């Protein structure tokens, strides 16, 4: 493994702190904690946050004179607090508590070590009497035992003798206040605090969420490692509790405080009272060195399962992306009832909700941690009943998955959103993005193909897929004027367009992305209905009341859904071609960054709905999801010829009219251009790579990383550049080489094969199958099929493009 697995910062910069906190978050798929300084509380430069996957709470607030309900992932009690101050000898008055903002820092370095999964800080500071103190701190959120975290802080006095006071606390006085735009919403989710001591060195805090009633308990053990034992005092408070340690310190006698924390909630599987669980777990926890060893071993194992070898800067960023993906969705997630949070467990943007972003995440996981993909699909399956209910309420059939999903699968999309530029609260119609259902269906199919999991496909997978197909068939309305089925009143992935200019009702007709993916869903549902063993088909059809005659409608709709075209390109939706052209250069000149063109235009009293201007890939998403052959096949089935020229013209058309207001946009454009116009692809791939590390969307990363874009860049190497498909019991490749990313390697898990090695080097692809595997792997490249037996490596020369 190359050695550049670190993200380092020299110097302290309060303006950069919230971004660093997000990028230095530590987590284990069960919970995560932002990389906030333990000496600080929430404020303009700091935002400590701890989030457990799937722990939500709902509150009602009054916004713009209206009552609005919001469900949020809850910022839980803060386990980090550890502050310190120096005393002289003989118990004289202590100096002030140290803060990185108080001007005493003379040296500061912070390093995120991806290999070990630790965040370290080294600080040198001068106290108010001019004495120098060095502080070395390491923290971890345990990847082996998902309920544990630890913080070790070592203090070294430089040439002086005295005392040090260290306060190690659990702070329950926490609100959700991490996103400025949500400041008008109530963020007080915690209630009923109780605190106390458990053992002489252990404190605990117990509270619950106000509406969802989830109990959250933490226990913290604080021990000193020094020659002379510390004096310990308990400091109870209403919403928190602390231990105050007084430590003698002198030159050449560093002292350390090890804080070990356990976190449990009443949502944990196989666990009883969360407080007993937390106290018991911390009691049995090893010391810091022991925890670090078991934690690093768990990470080493994970890195092996997700091997990725990409040279240079791209490789460095990709490993950071992989690290954050694994911290959000790890094998521990597979035990939970939780979905894919769009912003990781790294912040409060989008309130921890689950969107369609799993479309960019699961295809990567399918080939490394299939059990995690399956669990994430089960999150959707448990909410199928709710989606069926939502469709019925809307007068539709089948399952209508919500655009934003949280605890119980109801629609969580807000009804109003704030334009920070104009200060106006505006109606939010993004819930009309019913295409989220097709994302679920796509993942069901991809997962089942990659993992060979027929039990899932014929079981929960079929229940979802058939109901999603049914929703599309039922949503399609026959229009004799066009001699086509139409799906009307939707919003596509480009969220800028949510209505026709001047229209009284929101929604657009014939969104090409929605319709082509709906046709694909119908085709897969028909395939699956035919493949189900007869008793299962009978049972399932009977249970959901599916008449085989409905399948005839599915067949018909899958061939006759409308896909609009204008001037030789696929139209994003009916009427798109009639919209005005935007003066892109003029707006760029005036505003510089025009990613959020929707906000700019609204603040000017205009609306983006009037223009041919998109936030992110919409039509072009089709080139992301489907190989060129599959896409032209789908369109042919719908009665259209999609040749290379038409596709290329379509790509150019939208490329010139997209503002990339979502991190997903650069990713999709890079992916699609790698196949159509490779010379232009790298710029977008780089946007996707640097989106979070350079905070390209201007301040949004501090509110949480963009998980879809991070996982998507990993999948760009895995499937995008290789053209890898898993179907018909074989691995298919159709490489699209990018000169800037021409050599790489990774390993995949595929249908029970562990660690199939793949590497791309100048003009050839090398595939090796581990000797421990029992069966060979079938591979197809450029029309030739080969079989690689266990223990063998094969080299395939690739056709020039
Ligand atoms: C994007 C959506 C995405 C959401 C959550 C939005 O900005 O437009 O496509 O699902 O963020 O990541």
TrEMBL record:
Substrate binds at residues 356-357, 615-616. Residues 9-267 form the Glycoside hydrolase family 65 N-terminal domain. Pfam families: Glyco_hydro_65C, Glyco_hydro_65m, Glyco_hydro_65N. Keywords: Glycosidase, Glycosyltransferase, Hydrolase, Transferase. It comes from the Bacteria. The active site is at residue 495. InterPro entries: 6-hairpin_glycosidase_sf (IPR008928), 6hp_glycosidase-like_sf (IPR012341), Gal_mutarotase_sf_dom (IPR011013), GH65_N (IPR037018), Glyco_hydro_65_C (IPR005194), Glyco_hydro_65_M (IPR005195), Glyco_hydro_65_N (IPR005196), Malt_Pase/Glycosyl_Hdrlase (IPR017045). Belongs to the glycosyl hydrolase 65 family. This is Glycoside hydrolase family 65 protein. It comes from Streptomyces sp. SID12501.
